[in-house]
Structures are given as C-alpha cells and as structure tokens.
Specification:
The protein has helices at about 10-35, 35-65. By secondary structure, it is an all-alpha fold. The chain starts with 8 loop residues before the first helix and ends in a 7-residue tail after the last helix.
Length: about 70
C-alpha cells in the first residue's frame, strides 16, 4: 500500500490473504518433513482447512474489487 493511504477493507483482506498463504506453505512444508503418520495427517488436515479459508478470502477479494474497482491491484 502506498504511504499515506488509509487502510481499506480490501487492503486488509489482501494482507490477511498473503499471511494465510504463507502459513499454509509453512504447514505443508512441515507435513512433508514429518515422519510420524499421525502428525503428518494433522498437518495435512490443517493445510486443507487453511486452503479453504484462502479460497473464501480470494472470493471475497474478487467481490470487493468488483464492488469497489478503485481497490483492484492494491
């Protein structure tokens, strides 16, 4: 976001989305390194849950950009 610009809902959603994608990547990496099948399963489920939230936020971002085109690309 540009300096001096107010934080918008769209900007906050996009920042959250980026953080969640990072968290999902971290959990997926941990799952791939885990030797214990039970722990790996928990991490895989967690990554799947995070992916669901990411998908929902991506849909919300598209809706926000459609409703408020000036926020597209922020």
């Amino acid at each position: 976001m540009r300096k001096g610009m107010p934080v918008t809902v769209a900007g906050s959603v996009k920042q959250t989305l980026a953080s969640l994608k990072g968290a999902r990547a971290t959990v997926e990496t941990l799952a791939s390194l885990e030797n214990d099948a039970g722990s790996r399963a928990v991490l895989d489920r967690s990554a799947g849950l995070i992916a669901g939230v990411v998908n929902a936020l991506e849909e919300r971002t598209r809706a926000l950009e459609f409703q408020e085109p000036q926020y597209k690309g922020l």
